[in-house]
């Protein structure tokens, strides 16, 4: 594996960069969709059950199936891969955002409103800070899911480390296959550990601020 990477540094680096770009764009799209939508659902709870039901349906669809569904709709390449990965990572963050905000103590919210805070102030100063650990746990879960599922983007021309795995399997090049698989596993582990440390630090800071 190490010998193959040393002999093919440009191929490995290109696949890694493409994988990071693919997952970064998909995670950014998840953040831009899930966070505002989660906030919106807490203010319009009549739509929450329907939205959560749709999201739960997305959770049951395998990542490869989502990627294949994109083929007749958007064709192959980067865009359909990003759309599929966004749909795959969306449920974790949306559900955590909604759950975190709705589980904020109602007495604290009412006390804040009693002190004259507007709804926007209650959201930004009370609800979001208290729900932040749960929301960030959703971001961590979505990030790890996207990094792992992005491996399958190679099947629809999305590129990434999955191309090393598929090419290694097709050519019986096991060092290349193992290099791709180990890189994906290492990247997912790094994302998990990094986000877990940030989440722990954030929770500690919030507890210190509350005390």
Tell me the β content. Answer: under 5%
Q: What is the alpha-carbon Rg in Å? A: 20 Å
The main β sheet shows up as: none
The gross shape turns out to be elongated
User: Gap between N and C termini, in Å?
Assistant: 51 Å
Reading the helices and strands in chain order gives HHHHHHHHH
Tally of extended strands?
0
User: How helical, in percent, are the residues?
Assistant: over 70%
Count of helical segments? 9
- Average predicted confidence as pLDDT: 85
Going by helix content, strand content and strand pairing, the class is mainly alpha
Uncertain stretches of 5 or more adjacent residues: none
Care to describe what's here?
The chain has 211 residues and is mainly alpha-helical. The protein is 84% helix and 0% strand. It is built from nine helices and no strands. The chain is elongated and about 70 Å long. The termini are far apart.
Furnish the topology, listing elements before pairings.
Blueprint: H1 2-7, H2 9-43, H3 48-60, H4 63-74, H5 78-102, H6 106-114, H7 119-149, H8 162-170, H9 174-210
């Amino acid at each position: 594996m190490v010998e193959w990477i040393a002999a093919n540094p440009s191929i490995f680096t290109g696949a890694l960069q493409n994988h990071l770009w693919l997952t970064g764009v998909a995670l950014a799209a998840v953040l831009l969709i899930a966070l505002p939508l989660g906030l919106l659902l807490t203010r319009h709870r009549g739509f929450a059950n329907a939205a959560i039901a749709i999201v739960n349906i997305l959770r049951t669809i395998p990542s490869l199936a989502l990627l294949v569904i994109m083929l007749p709709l958007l064709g192959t390449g980067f865009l359909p891969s990003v759309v599929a990965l966004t749909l795959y990572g969306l449920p974790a963050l949306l559900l955590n955002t909604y759950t975190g905000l709705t589980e904020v103590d109602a007495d604290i919210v009412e006390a804040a409103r009693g002190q004259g805070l507007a709804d926007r102030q209650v959201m930004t100063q009370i609800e979001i800070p208290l729900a932040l650990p749960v929301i960030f746990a959703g971001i961590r879960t979505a990030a790890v899911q996207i990094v792992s599922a992005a491996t399958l983007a190679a099947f629809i021309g999305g590129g990434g480390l999955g191309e090393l795995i598929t090419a290694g399997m097709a050519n019986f090049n096991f060092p290349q296959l193992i290099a791709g698989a180990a890189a994906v596993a290492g990247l997912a582990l790094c994302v998990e550990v990094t986000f877990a440390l940030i989440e722990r630090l954030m929770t500690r800071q919030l507890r210190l601020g509350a005390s």
